[in-house]
Design goal:
heterodimer, A: mainly alpha, D-Maltodextrin-Binding Protein, domain 2, 10 helices, 4 strands, 10% strand, B: mainly alpha, 2 domains, three-stranded parallel beta sheet, 8 helices
Chain lengths: 199, 282
């Protein structure tokens, strides 16, 4: 989960998008490590979890789950991204372009060849748990084309607008900020070289 | 007896203090191992502390206990190493222990005994003893360093390279990270096979600071945007996860089939901030 604490801050958005109020549910505060055991032992009825971490731990313990993804229920907000500082971007535009193109090629390869990707990953991170990495890789493909994405690696302007709108509501982002100040698509490969999302 | 104060220190006071020094080392050596582990909890992506944390977070109990066994062995080994060094460096303590055991000694008497022995030992003998002690202490330091380095093994990836890449999570831990095909492609494109290296940072701390060496990094776009809104000079360049991975999970048998079914139900969540309750997040 890329950003732990923002997850809970975003919960009211999820409830609101589905016509519920915070007072409609009984929120139980607990440390991250207690979430999985608490759900398995029935101390709570549900947890605010995540596709790429808690769900994998739960399923590894044999849990049969019903999941309600933020992406599918009205709260898709941009997430894991490549970023760089302005000075480096200005001084090394070609490096940035090549790096992004190569990264997207890498992700694309990993989506098509998950087994090979896990094997390659093991070479770079020898201490890695292959089984866990394989389940993680299997869990994330839906995230690559969520939120009305047309291409892998490129968040549409509308998604940024939506993200700014939603997150300024819970004060995760300041109100009135131009979403365009957060990102630039100038260093992405041309659209013809991007991998399209299947609609 | 004609000894200078320097000689008194080197041949009398310091040797006499060795038992106390060693008891200090014995205590701190074990604590040092603990400190190394705790340090790894905070910011490492290698080492026993990291493995322990990974085992806990993935509920891999066998792994946790395996680490505990290794840690126990290391702790015992360090303790014996120090005890052996003490034994080797303070031979008079051995006889002192025996005399104490037979009820004939006190530390004052032991010091007295050393004093007398020092006075009667010939200079050549002193030199030999001293060099033995020196060799021993050097070995001890080397051993301790080796243990320390091994324990801390490390946590810090130095990055004196043209491009520094920071993964803001532990690869293979929460997300598979940057797939190596990317690495292959990058090295092929840039011909940096030997120069490209990576710096990694623990998960959940999307970090950026002007001092950070990373020039390119992966992190949650919201965390990056928050920093940009505060004036950090940087930009999101490509978005890989087009949505946050958050979801509400319920066991099938609980019968929660829609979000509406959550009404009145207990939902576990992490506090948004320390000491803040979930219900006061908005």
């Amino acid at each position: 989960m890329p950003s732990g604490s923002s997850q809970t801050t975003m919960l009211p958005l999820f409830l609101k998008a589905n016509n519920l109020k915070e007072s409609d549910v009984n929120l139980i505060n607990m440390p991250a490590t207690s979430m999985v055991p608490a759900l398995l032992q029935g101390q709570v009825d549900a947890i605010l979890g995540s596709i790429d971490a808690y769900q994998i731990q739960l399923e590894a313990q044999g849990a049969q789950l019903d999941n309600f993804k933020f992406a599918d229920y009205g709260v898709p907000t941009v997430s894991t991204s490549i970023f760089a500082n302005d000075t480096y971007i200005k001084e090394n535009p070609e490096v940035i372009k090549k790096f992004i193109a190569a990264s997207l090629k890498g992700w694309s390869f990993a989506l098509d060849n998950p087994e090979k990707a896990v094997k390659d990953l093991k070479v770079v991170f020898p201490e890695m748990n292959e089984k866990l990495a394989a389940s993680e890789l299997a869990a994330i493909p839906s995230l690559f084309c969520s939120g009305g994405a047309k291409y892998i690696g490129k968040a549409e302007d509308a998604l940024w607008v939506k993200t700014q709108e939603l997150l300024s509501e819970v004060k995760l982002l300041p109100a009135g900020q131009d979403p365009k100040s957060y990102y630039t698509n100038a260093y992405l490969p041309p659209v013809s070289e991007l991998r399209a999302c299947k609609s | 007896m004609g000894a200078t104060s320097g000689q008194t220190f080197r041949f009398l006071r310091f040797p006499a203090a060795l038992p106390v020094i060693f008891s200090g080392i014995k205590t701190s050596a074990t604590i040092a191992a603990t400190a190394a582990i705790v340090a790894e909890f905070v910011g490492a992506n290698q080492g026993l502390g990291y493995v322990l944390l990974r085992g806990t977070s993935t509920m891999d109990i066998e792994l946790v206990f395996a680490v505990l066994v290794v840690l126990t062995i290391i702790g015992i080994a360090i303790n014996y190493l120090v005890e052996f060094s003490e034994w080797a460096m303070t031979p008079w303590q051995r006889s002192k222990t025996i005399s104490e055991a037979t009820g004939q000694g006190s530390s004052a008497a032991a010091i007295e005994k050393i004093h007398v022995r020092w006075a009667t030992i010939r200079p050549a003998q002193i030199l030999r003893r001293r060099s033995n002690a020196y060799v021993n202490s050097k070995m001890l330091i080397a051993g301790a360093l080796a243990v320390g380095l091994g324990l801390a093994a490390s946590t810090v990836a130095t990055a004196q390279t043209p491009i520094t890449f920071q993964l803001n999570w532990v690869a293979g831990e929460r997300t598979p990270g940057l797939p190596p095909p990317s690495w292959k492609a990058i090295t092929r494109l840039l011909d940096w096979t030997s120069r490209l290296s990576r710096a990694t940072a623990p998960a959940t701390r999307p970090s950026w600071s002007p001092a950070a060496r990373s020039q390119l990094a992966y992190a949650d776009a919201v965390a990056i945007s928050q920093l940009i809104a505060k004036g950090a000079p940087m930009k999101v360049l490509s978005t890989v996860y087009q949505s946050n991975p958050n979801e509400v999970s319920a066991l099938k048998k609980t019968g929660i089939k829609s979000i509406k079914d959550l009404v009145g139900k207990k939902v576990g969540c992490r506090p948004a901030h320390r000491r803040q309750r979930c219900s006061r997040c908005s």
